[in-house]
From TrEMBL:
Residues 3-180 form the Formyl transferase N-terminal domain. GO terms for molecular function: phosphoribosylglycinamide formyltransferase activity. Pathway: Purine metabolism; IMP biosynthesis via de novo pathway; N(2)-formyl-N(1)-(5-phospho-D-ribosyl)glycinamide from N(1)-(5-phospho-D-ribosyl)glycinamide (10-formyl THF route): step 1/1. It comes from Sphingomonas brevis. The active site is at residue 107. (6R)-10-formyltetrahydrofolate binds at residues 60, 88-91, 105. The record marks 143 as: Raises pKa of active site His. The chain holds residues 4 to 211 of 320 of the full protein. Catalyzes the transfer of a formyl group from 10-formyltetrahydrofolate to 5-phospho-ribosyl-glycinamide (GAR), producing 5-phospho-ribosyl-N-formylglycinamide (FGAR) and tetrahydrofolate. Belongs to the GART family. N(1)-(5-phospho-beta-D-ribosyl)glycinamide binds at residues 12-14. The keyword Transferase applies. Keywords: Purine biosynthesis, Transferase. This is Phosphoribosylglycinamide formyltransferase. It comes from the Bacteria.
Length: 208
């Protein structure tokens, strides 16, 4: 089984979804480590309770050496794939290059729409009828790497950023493990999930 490291900064609900999915007998990955940039991230408690090894690094204290330490940890644990799950830190290009094709992220919008922070606010402000979630390869272009999987979530007329985020999160929890499994199985057959969304996304202008 491929060894996945999940990187978190907070709650860790997508991390939990990745761990739970890994318990299926035919799952091609195991979560070998949970780490992140903030030692007090809530997700660590879940990871520990689930018996997953945790490595709490403090990026603020470590400064530039954070990325070197992280790389050492990942190498020491023979990690095959890095999965960012609510990891709220811009990754230096050198680190991205080291994990080219082996680092994925989940973003709560239909990329390329609404890259960056506050994507739910941006979605509502734009009057989009659909939001959703995207799993993509991490590339030097933030939130701009190759899309591996997407799922749509309809916007409701009375949605607030919080209510929309809550429903998108339900979709994220299914999409993330599904997409990681498909990617690791190298089927690269994401048509079932990307076709419809691909057309929709292409018909809409890209936003910042
Ligand atoms: C998720 O909605 C994730 O898509 C988003 O943060 C949330 C983390 O929740 N990520 C980003 O916005 C990345 N730019 P979680 O900690 O419960 O998984």
């Amino acid at each position: 089984r491929s060894r996945v490291a999940v990187l978190i900064s907070g709650r860790g609900s997508n991390m939990a979804a990745l761990i739970y999915a890994s318990r299926a007998e035919d799952c091609p990955y195991e979560v070998a480590m949970v780490t992140g940039d903030k030692p007090d991230a809530d997700g660590f408690e879940i990871a520990r309770a689930e018996g997953v090894a945790t490595e709490a690094l403090n990026a603020r204290e470590l400064g530039a050496s954070y990325w070197t330490r992280l790389q050492q940890l990942l190498e020491a644990a023979s990690i095959d794939l890095v999965a960012l799950a609510g990891f709220m830190r811009i990754i230096p290009e050198e680190f991205v290059a080291k994990w080219d094709g082996r680092m994925v992220n989940i973003h709560p919008s239909l990329l390329p729409r609404h890259k960056g922070l506050k994507s739910h606010e941006a979605c509502l402000a734009a009057g989009d009828k659909f939001s959703g979630a995207t799993v993509h390869l991490v590339s030097p272009d933030v939130d701009g790497g190759e899309i591996l999987g997407q799922v749509e979530v309809a916007v409701l007329s009375n949605d607030t950023p919080d209510s929309l985020a809550e429903r998108v999160l339900i979709a994220e929890h299914q999409l993330y493990p599904d997409t990681v499994i498909r990617y690791l199985n190298r089927t690269r057959d994401f048509d079932w999930i990307t076709n419809k969304v691909g057309e929709l996304a292409l018909a809409l202008p890209e936003t910042g």
